[in-house]
Amino acid sequence: MYISMLRSRFGHFYRRETGLFCAALVFFLGTLMSSCTQPQSTVTPLFRGLYSPKAVQLTLGTRSAGTKVDFTIDNINMRIYNRVPLPYGTKLDSAYLTMYLSNQVPMSLVNAATGTQKWHPGDTAKISVKGGLLKLNISRDGHPALTYDFRIQSYGYDPNKLTWKNLGADVLPVAAERGRVISLDGKYYFVGRTGTEVSLYGLAAEPLSFSAQEGAALPPLSKPETLLSDKHGLTWMATDDGKLYFTKDLRTWSLYYAPTTGDGERVVSVLSDNSKGRDAVARLSVITRTQAGYFFKSMRSDASGAFSAFDGGVPVDPHFPVKGGYIYTYTVSGTQHSYLFGGVTAMDLPSEKAYFTSDGINWAPTPFVSAANSVPEVGGLYLADPDTPGRLMLVGGTYAGKVSSKIKVSNDRGITWTELTKEQLPPAAFLPRSMSSGFLMHDAKGIQHVYILGGVVDGKPSREVWHGYLDTSGGVVNAFEN
Question: Are the C-beta atoms of 177 and 435 separated by less than 8 Å?
């Protein structure tokens, strides 16, 4: 009975206290919700005294379809700037500013050209960015304002306008009708072929010079355009008669595969090394030809670099280019990916599409190639910029059966191409050409150099060399001095 009485009294107390608590909670939430619905001109931050910008972005042009530029915030040197300069000739007038701070306080932007303008987090009005030199002042309660040097950087020179010079009509040691420049152990080499003769030369730039590699024995009927290096440092090359060779030094070559009979399976193209970065093995893919048609084949190495025989045998789509195309390979998250541009199909027709792969066997067409965004069927010289990922230069080649002197550039791995203007091209003496070789490099000062070697010019194998270099004397507009 005593226990029953305690339970009754305790329950009554619990219900009464719980009711009071719930009433207080409802009152508090109601007050909070009411205050949230009232117009508020400022929001009091939880952490007073923190005023550094967290993100800065400008939208040039229209708000919805303009160019968005992200800025780097240097809180040590009190600088805000775009790490990648805007393209040469970018016009700066006005822009939409997006900025986040750790404290919502009034700010002002001082433009060296147009004066002071007020700005507050949440503003959507345009700001003047004429000239690209601004200062951002952030107010602080009871403390001096913070001031950032806010600069919009742009190139003061046209990165596609090279200064061109013809080094001479007899610079190459051989009149090469097809060739390839390859880099091995930090050095450049030129493999040139005229008729059935194949030669190897060491190559040095600035000034350009060639040195015959005495004792080098390249495979007969080698196809320089099929040269490919794998992750183990082996270099591969196919031959006209369907053989496949490899080397460690470009001088001594070993036979990897040869057709067993005169009409046996032949290697036509060496496609790509689609190895995974974390794996110790390499995975190469090739195209072979049999009486039944063309096939994708792969070959794998063990950890020591020794390769097994061909794997697989996936038929090649009739529209896929089996030879003459250019393969651009790049790495993302340790995995190699490849694009293939141009080339001719098994029916000797120009390929109408570009293709992509992540494994070297399964290639999918892409929508990149069109009449307005075309690449040559064969013979184009593709040069990858070693210091600017995704940037490619394309020289000459055959378009719709006609040899061209066009030069194009791409900054997105060949997804889009822009043809150089007359002012950016070499002079009129630069004739249409196909099957040229060459290389793109940057010297110790970071200046870009392009060398275009030989090829078939005016219908004949050529020893001509053109050199283009980028005049960077215009520097970067609004750059910091240190």
Answer: yes
